[in-house]
């Protein structure tokens, strides 16, 4: 697509859609032989895309929206990236995602760095980061709104954030979303926890290598924030459901490092941890109302 000015970004968006007609007709993009992102938006570009299937990128993200670009993506599958996220959103990019299926990506499903993302009616399944962050979503200084979406079996790395890690002055809002059984690897766990998960066929009593069991409700997840971790950021959880989420220390939702969170009309069911199975707070401010724990 062309590169319109910021004041007329969407005026030429239909040009991008027309250019994709032939691409959509292919039904699926097998980019396993490609290097770099499969779809790349340069700064100030605009793209509208519908009914795409982007599979198996060997390196780079499936879709990369660079600074100040605009992306409207719907009815699309982003899956199987080997060395990149399903979607990477850069500074001041504006992205709308509708009816996406984001699964089995190897550098988080969606990574947002100082961008703006709105997600509706989408699913995130069995995504994981390469080194750090939440499996489904990792935000840094970003503004993210997610509505009516599901998060299942996403794998985190590090000590916080199994499904989502909202970090570094991000503002993350989740409305009517469902989180269940995300799985995380933890670099170091205590001997007691290691012995427990060792009985399930993991690394054993020392627990020094961590463990991962995507299908077990009793598997080792993240140390804190099995579904969502809010770190130095603000979170809003409205009408969300958290079920069968287990962490080693605490929190289907974890809030730390001067983070702030408001929880309204949400349900925490069958969650487990040594401390704070539903909510775990460290140096933070949390408001909970009209919810069931």
Question: Could you characterize the architecture of this molecule?
Answer:
- By secondary structure, the chain is mainly β.
- 7% of the residues lie in helices and 39% in strands.
- It is built from 3 helices and 27 strands.
- The strands form 3 sheets. The chain has a 16-stranded parallel β-sheet that branches. The protein has a 9-stranded parallel β-sheet with strand order 2-5-7-9-12-16-20-23-26, with no helix packed on it. It has a two-stranded parallel ribbon with strand order 15-19.
- It is globular, with a radius of gyration of 19 Å.
- The protein starts with 12 loop residues before the first helix and ends with a strand.
How is the topology of this model organized?
Blueprint: H1 13-19, H2 21-25, E1 29-30, E2 39-41, E3 46-50, E4 53-55, E5 63-65, E6 70-79, E7 87-89, E8 94-103, E9 110-113, E10 116-120, E11 123-125, E12 137-140, E13 143-147, E14 150-152, E15 155-157, E16 164-167, E17 171-175, E18 178-180, E19 183-185, H3 191-198, E20 228-231, E21 234-238, E22 241-243, E23 253-256, E24 260-264, E25 267-269, E26 279-281, E27 285-289
Parallel strand pairs: 1-4, 2-5, 3-6, 4-6, 5-7, 6-8, 7-9, 8-10, 8-11, 9-12, 10-13, 11-14, 12-16, 13-17, 14-18, 15-19, 16-20, 17-21, 18-22, 20-23, 21-24, 22-25, 23-26, 24-27
Provide tags for this entry.
293 residues, mainly beta, 7% helix, disordered N terminus
């Amino acid at each position: 697509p062309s590169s319109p000015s910021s004041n007329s970004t969407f005026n030429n968006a239909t040009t991008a859609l027309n250019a994709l007609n032939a691409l959509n007709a292919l039904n699926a993009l097998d980019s396993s032989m490609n290097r770099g992102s499969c779809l790349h938006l340069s700064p100030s570009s605009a793209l509208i895309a519908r009914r795409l299937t982007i599979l198996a990128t060997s390196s780079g993200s499936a879709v990369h929206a660079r600074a100040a670009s605009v992306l409207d993506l719907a009815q699309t599958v982003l899956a199987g990236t080997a060395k990149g996220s399903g979607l990477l959103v850069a500074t001041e990019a504006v992205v709308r995602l509708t009816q996406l299926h984001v699964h089995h990506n190897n550098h988080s499903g969606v990574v947002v760095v100082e961008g703006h993302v709105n997600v509706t009616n989408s699913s995130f399944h069995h995504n994981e980061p390469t080194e750090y962050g939440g499996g489904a979503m990792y935000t840094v200084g970003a503004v993210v709104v997610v509505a009516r979406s599901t998060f299942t079996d996403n794998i985190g790395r590090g000590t916080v954030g199994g499904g989502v890690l909202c970090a570094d002055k991000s503002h993350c809002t989740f409305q009517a979303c469902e989180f269940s059984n995300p799985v995380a690897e933890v670099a170091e766990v205590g001997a007691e926890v290691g012995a427990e998960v060792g009985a399930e066929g993991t690394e054993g009593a020392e627990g020094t290598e961590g463990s991962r069991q995507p299908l077990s409700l009793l598997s080792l997840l993240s140390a804190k924030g099995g579904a969502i971790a809010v770190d130095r950021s603000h979170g809003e959880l409205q009408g969300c459901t958290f079920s069968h989420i287990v962490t080693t220390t605490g929190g289907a939702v974890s809030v730390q490092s001067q983070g702030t969170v408001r929880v309204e009309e949400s349900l925490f069911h069958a969650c487990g941890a040594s401390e704070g199975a539903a909510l775990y707070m460290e140096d933070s401010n949390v408001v909970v109302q009209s919810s069931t724990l």
